[in-house]
Amino acid sequence: MNAVPADSDTLAGSTWAVLRRGFAVMPEIREGLALTITLAMAGGFGKLAIPVLIQLLFDQGLSSGHLDTGLLLRLGALVAVVVVGTTLINWLSLVRLASASERALCGLRVGAFAHVHRLSVAYHSAETRGKLVSRVTSDVETLSQFLQWGGVAWVVNGAAMLAALVGMAYYDLWLTLVVVVLIVPLVVLIVVLTKRLGVAHSAVRSRVADLLTVLSETIQGAAVIRAYGITAPSLRRTRSTIHRWRDTKTRAGYLGGVLFSLAELFAAIVVVGVVAVGLAIGPSGGHTAGELVAFLLLVTVFLGPVTQFTQVIDYTQNAAAGWRRVLALLDIAEDVAEPADGRQLPSGPPAVAVREVTFGYPDAAPALTDVSFEVPAGRQVVLVGATGSGKTTLTKLIARLADPDQGVVLIGGVDVREIATASLRSRVVVVPQDPFLFDTTIEENVRYGRPSATRADIERAFRDLGAGAFLDSLPRGLDTPVGQRGESLSAGERQLVALARAHLADPACLILDEATSAVDPRIELTLIEALRRLTAGRTSLTVAHRLATAERADEVIVLDGGRLVERGRHDELFAAGGVYAGLYDSWRRATAGGAAA
Ligand SMILES: Nc1ncnc2c1ncn2[C@@H]1O[C@H](COP(=O)(O)OP(=O)(O)OP(=O)(O)O)[C@@H](O)[C@H]1O
Questions:
Q1: Which one, 299, 301, 379, 582, has least CB within 10 Å?
Q2: Which ranges does the record mark as transmembrane (predicted)?
Q3: ipTM over 0.95 threshold
């Protein structure tokens, strides 16, 4: 079958190769497939028995003009048994296919979803969420019709056509040749149109991904869109993406329709051709009425799958287009792979060392170049730098959300690439700038830190951090719902919930990215105290946006344009009058201005 031009989101190769690989990654569909195909074949062959029985009815039951009632009844009963048996067998094979297909789709969705989670932040940054969602949902869904019937239809219909052809040849070789000659142009047209259909279905899959990207962006950014009065351009963008999707889908539908209609047309031509040739040959052909009726019925049995095939081709090309995208996703190597014999981190606060680290996001200049420093065990070090200087990127490398292009990150003296992920995640906890909260209560959000924690543990986590008053100020306390992404809470409150979550996890090493958004002074004081208590006795690396945090740190590391340019204590760096002193002055002026305003 045809090869579809590849793009970066899509697996290249012929449809056949894609289908083979697709089946290989879905073991569930192969379970019991032999029995299902046998049942489907039996159902198909049941249909073939009917023309033969009808021929017998005509030729034996009505022989020499008189009615053989006994034979007629026996043959009639046999036809009824065959029809009921065939229906039951067909039903059973369809049920088996549907359940195997749902199991396989479920397995593929879960597998693709798990794979996305194993990919590094570098991949996540490069790929839009809409595209990822479309791979796990709608791209996988395209396989449904193919798996439920389309795949097996190739085998069953092919066998039924072959059997019908043999049956027809048994009754009349020349008439069978007429059928074959008349059907050849259709086969040629099918081959040509199938290629175009494959390209059209691939385009539909790409447009669906675009659509999900635009929709998820416009829904998530609804507040910004309204605030800036850009509803009209945003609607235009959404509308044009929907229109592009509609156009590609219409083209695929049009080609599918042409294919189906051509098959119907050729089916009619074949029947007319057979009748015309049959009449032309006339009684000299030497066939009984029963044989002619049986031949015509066999022609319809032969043509049924031909028209079905056009639909099956449509399902197949649609499935191949979806599979290309899902398989391309599964083919992305896990760039933060689990080490084969993962090492456990030693107990107690670990030292952190960053050695000659260079890292760049895909298709971008390096975000970090040759960065080296150490955080001694149990010390609090602060990272400072202008926006875009690489602070957050550095924290991601230390937490192994991505691996450096060059250099190494050591925790407790062990290369992070050699540490078992479970050990790393339990000992090193990251609190990002804008922590993600799930749409549930404060209690449930904090419990993500330690799933076995009791309600009392969670309440204690807040009180340990000096945030008991915050909890008491909430009318529903721990049961307060936080809304989608925590939008019912202020930025400072979200950070506080994230700190309680980190405290509950009880890590030996903390990586904190301070919230940049302004928080009200009451929460600010609570946050400062919570941070002080949380970092006590632990190794910590804090990205400081409020430079008051740097004043208290054991050491300040200053990044500029992805390079480490200064390090030392606050007083020394301030006195040196370099990059840090400039940043500190700007921060002081900004906070004084903010206070004066
Ligand atoms: N996902 C990404 N894809 C491509 N480039 C990125 C990505 N994230 C960050 N960068 C680039 O990497 C550089 C460092 O970004 P980073 O977020 O680490 O800076 P930062 O110092 O934490 O900034 P801020 O203080 O604003 O949070 C910047 O040039 C930024 O544009």
A1: 582
A2: 33-58, 70-92, 146-166, 173-192, 252-281, 293-315
A3: yes
